[in-house]
Design a protein that fits this description.
- α5 packs antiparallel against α11 and α6 runs parallel beside α8.
- The chain is 33% helix and 20% strand.
- The protein has a 9-stranded mixed β-sheet, covered by helices on one side. Strands 3-2-1-4-5-6 form a 6-stranded parallel β-sheet, sandwiched between helices.
- The protein has 2 domains: 128 residues, Rossmann fold; 207 residues, Dihydrodipicolinate Reductase, domain 2.
- β2, α2 and β3 form a beta-alpha-beta unit.
- It has 379 residues and is α/β, with parallel strands linked by helices.
- The structure holds nicotinamide-adenine-dinucleotide (NAD).
- Nicotinamide-adenine-dinucleotide binds next to α4.
Length: 379
């Protein structure tokens, strides 16, 4: 007997990035939702949907036949929309970050616990975890090539000053939620891959961030915003391992959103930092002190990646958008484990939120609430 396809609703234009990966997993898009009529028309056309399936009110998505919802709206809407969808019996893939306050984190964690009991999936759409180099490093970590990994860095350097105001000069949601707060407000593109490496797994979450300390550089480039130009967050994991994240969305410079470092007892990785540079790996088995190219280890890419790589790289963010959607659909169908679990999503998100208190207190290390503490709270 054939399994009916997963029916998915795409909410806001960013969710369209999931279309190729969903289709490759055999899912069908049954509805789209946008509040901007032009974007709604564009999404409807891309998905080949009639007018009746082009919705402008999110409440109608939750009354539609969709089994799953991809939430691609501005940051402050992620948690309320995800909770509403889970409560309505839908699987959810949410854009980053998962929430914009610890209260939202608590409500979402509780909703995820309730939904999990009904077999529903919540996954965060952290596409940085599915770029070729981050997947390949994860494979190398898992086969022990780096030994015991204990330190990692990630940087998200993306001058998006032009997105902080709309054409009419009014501040956008980015102005409020990304640079309107001081701290590591948008750290998950860095935290996602490096925390997965330090965990040694993409699904379990044995070693969460336990505390964070955050400092900034001061306001120099565009001082109207609360966020300091460069913000650095140190994350201490429950095991004692250390991660450092730098986020900068204001400084004048070319973008570098995928800078990473990893150190283990038997090896190290340094990512490309500018276009034209190579990703480099050094392993102690090599004996010489010179680096090898990461591509020398391409055979370590997992089979699912190699099978779909040529399709995936046609999508956005170096295949990341394709694979997050493909994994999400597979997880909803029970074929594969959820790769970016509620525990991971909310640990990475909560760390960034606690960093805002830390920076206010001069970099004081502060505890990050764990899953049990978040999910215990009434939703
Ligand atoms: N993972 C990534 O690489 C990546 C890349 C870009 C954006 N994002 C995330 O995606 C989200 C959207 O970013 P963006 O750049 O598209 O923002 P944007 O401001 O360009 O677009 C937001 C869109 O959401 C629509 N919208 C607002 N409220 C809505 C609602 N209630 N229902 C339906 N549609 C609604 C708006 O009409 C608008 O078209 C953000 O959370 C951002 O962080 C992630």
């Amino acid at each position: 007997m054939s399994v009916p396809p997963l029916r998915v609703a795409l909410v806001a234009k960013r969710a369209l990035a999931a279309l190729p990966g969903l289709r490759a997993a055999g899912a069908v898009v049954c509805a789209v939702c946008e509040t901007d009529p032009q974007q709604l028309a564009r999404m409807g056309e891309a998905c080949g949907l009639p007018e009746s399936r082009r919705l402008s009110d999110y409440a109608d998505v939750l009354c539609s036949e969709a089994d799953a919802v991809v939430v691609g709206t501005p940051m402050h809407l992620h948690a309320p929309q995800a909770i509403a969808a889970l409560e309505a019996g839908r699987h959810v893939m949410s854009a980053v970050t998962a929430a914009v306050s610890l209260d939202q984190c608590r409500a979402l964690a509780a909703a995820c616990e309730r939904a999990r009991a009904h077999g529903l999936v919540y996954m965060m759409d952290e596409n940085a975890c599915f770029r070729r180099h981050t997947v390949l490093i994860r494979s190398l970590v898992r086969r022990g090539a780096f030994g015991d990994v204990y330190y990692a860095e990630g940087e998200y350097l993306h001058d998006v000053k032009h997105l902080h105001h709309g054409p009419d000069g009014a501040p956008t949601w980015r102005s409020t939620w990304q640079v309107g707060r001081n701290g590591c407000t948008y750290g998950t593109h860095s935290l996602g891959p490096i925390l997965q490496w330090l965990q040694g797994t993409s699904t379990g979450y044995p070693d969460p961030i336990a505390s964070v300390s955050c400092l900034g550089s001061g306001r120099h480039t565009d001082p109207e915003h609360a966020m300091e130009d460069t913000v650095v967050m140190l994350c201490k994991l429950a095991s004692g391992r250390l991660a450092r994240v730098r986020v900068d969305m204001l400084s004048n410079r070319p973008q570098a959103v995928s800078n990473y470092t990893l150190q283990g007892t038997e090896g190290a990785y340094e990512s490309q930092r500018a276009s034209g540079e190579r990703h480099r790996v050094w392993l102690s088995t090599r004996r010489e002190r010179s680096w090898q190219e990461l591509d020398d280890f391409a055979d370590d890419l997992p089979e699912w990646y190699r099978t779909l790589a040529s399709q995936a790289t046609e999508g956005g963010h170096g295949g990341g958008d394709f694979f997050t959607a493909w994994w999400f659909a597979q997880a909803c169908l029970g074929i594969r484990e959820v790769p970016i679990t509620p525990e991971a999503a909310l640990n990475w998100t909560a760390a960034g939120l606690v960093s805002q208190d830390s920076i206010r207190q001069g970099g004081m290390p502060l505890p990050v609430p764990g899953w049990a503490e978040l999910a215990r709270a009434p939703g």
